[in-house]
């Protein structure tokens, strides 16, 4: 079952292509994160869905209703879509109660009861209702903005980098809180973010945009472990990329023979190994393939090692690893690979 369907959406601004033939489906009650580098088209996509822009081509359908097609577009205020922006966009001259109620339809019955219901839903103290936005923290303001958006009982919620201005710890707490609220309300959500870790932890589905095109969409696990190409692999997290020779279900590379994910392949390929698959073991007598640590960067719980491999004309491999039993520069080490590695294609 599909709540929102985007069919071959395209948008240009003059000669600049913002989006090109983007198609994506959103399931009811699901959480989708849209990620991509700056200029990839994330914000344009959100604005098209919200109704702030009209696509040059393609179609937007929400719950069976066509919102945009062939130059026709339903106005933003009639789409039944809520949106929470990066800065919350609260009205500074209104109380928190009035900010929340601003999202209500005219003549909403039991206004006060509805305000109390919403502030409870976003897990804020009712005593805050008489305050003004400047008297709240950034995280609290974002919760009020969410309550206001929920006040109109939207069919879909759009989150435009709502956590980016918050401190790291608060950002994680807010993300979890917002996720709980929207899940409890049963509202499908699209989050636009530049934070890959945030996207992977928040969403049921992740969509990667690049240069206005949809590169890949799927579950966070699928995209992280099986990215479509090397650019997607590096965008979604740290990765070691190596040339290899595939021989069925194994491949020979600078780290030795490794297991590869199905389907079986033959010939030259490029493999991807996530850092958490690599175990660095100090071993002065390690036979090849092995290497020597040429640089160590301590960063607390995790550290970064650069390892020059024996007899290989490749730059040192950079690995993020646990700081427990961390080797020193100059130590000889063995690199053990856990699990299967991912293959992109022919090298």
Automatic annotation (TrEMBL):
Domain called ABC transporter: residue spans: 4-236
Any single biological process term in GO: quaternary ammonium group transport
Signal sequence annotation: none
Coiled-coil residue windows: none
GO molecular function, one term: ATP hydrolysis activity
Keywords: ATP-binding, Cell membrane, Ion transport, Iron, Iron transport, Membrane, Nucleotide-binding, Transport
A single GO cellular-component term on record: ATP-binding cassette (ABC) transporter complex
Matching PANTHER family: SPERMIDINE/PUTRESCINE IMPORT ATP-BINDING PROTEIN POTA, SPERMIDINE_PUTRESCINE IMPORT ATP-BINDING PROTEIN POTA
Recorded family membership: Belongs to the ABC transporter superfamily.
Name this protein carries in UniProt: ABC transporter ATP-binding protein
